[in-house]
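Slide 14.
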Amino acid sequence: MENQAEERPSRIGPRISRRVMIASVAGCVVLGGVVVLLPWEGTPTRAPAPAPGAQARAAVAAGAPAALPDLAVLIGERESHLRAHPKDARSWAVLGAAYVEQGRRTADAAYYPRAEKTLRTSLKVRAKGNAEALEGLAALANARRDFRAARRWAEAARKLEPKRWTTYPQLIDAYTGLGDHEAAHGALDQLMKLRSGPAVMARAAAVYRDQGRREDAAAQLADAAAGAEAPAERAAYLERAGQLAWERGDREAALRHFQEAVRIDPDQRAAQAGQGRALAALGRTTEALNAYRAALTKQPYPQYALELGELYESLGLDQAARVQYDLVRERVRRAAAGGADEELVLGQFEADHGDPRAAVRRLRAEWARQPGIAVADALGWALHRAGRPEEALRFATTATDETKGGAVRSALYSYHRGMIERRLKRYGSARRHLEEALRINPYFSPVGARVARAVLTELGEPSLEDVPES
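Slide 15: predicted structure.
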């Protein structure tokens, strides 16, 4: 039996006088029969940019990422407005959506109860025809990882206003979280009939990625980033492009995307965490640790703390790793207090660094609530760690078998399946899936990639017994 402790897997020239200028223009009013009009000094060539609050409002209304300073301005403006106009249902909905975005960008779940109260106030003020509030509640449920509630609210909004395009991204996220990839693709088709542009391209990229269509996803994100006008929006799409590059093992491209995203929007903390992954894979450990710490300071997601802990552990810094693991539990508790579901990351943590049986209990409940592919993989791995490989393989197969919805090309999922098959002495299949994991991304985990290579060495070259019967 293998040592389970070793299985852990762990983005001007000189001034011209006015008199000379006038003479020059007068002498060249007509050139070849074409009137030449030159702008006078001080004439603006572009319309002035909208105020920060208006920028954030436009972004929130379009389901696009908004800059944190602009969001703060928008929230202050709407709060002030509503104190004087409490019957303005639309402003309540805008404020609620802004709270959701603020909570998501800062990983502060304390914004979510505030958002829920605000959005429900909007519905109370105008109960009929309020698709904006229904859509906001769907966005809130998706942010909390309550995908069943998100589907319910988004479908209600769609029924009310079928051509309201901003509802469809919420439907896509909800269907994906519930493992209903066919419905997610159908929602994307409807969205693309109603709207085009960077926000739609980014949504298409997410669906294509889940279908295993990486090249199509990357092309959509490249176009979305090129077409985005607001820096925060462009940075968000660059971060997602970095994730795609990372998933295929391209460390350098991933790092370039992450760095550009942070340069454009210093509050793009997901890109800073992405820099941590890429830098660690490049052997630039000190920079990687600093990037993770910077991300966690402003956006304390439990996932970042788990990744940082595993990086510390891979370096033999066990005490520093334990500090991060304690923070995982604490941040999950804080998220739960705001109604956010972080059971998936807690189950992943418990499977490798805590109590695998507790991980199985948590992840079984999560699977019953929302059977997405990520939950299938995590539950299969927890079952394996708890000594139940036969049942584990069923879930690992769901996560990796395209016929069962597992079309995502994930090195981690393939690694998990290969290790489970090795436990079951299915050595040929184990070898294929471990090789696939390293082929997809040779750097997918500071610990797991090393273990995969060691196990492949142990398994040796394929034998005739590994050849399937015709």
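Speaker note: The chain has 24 helices and two strands.
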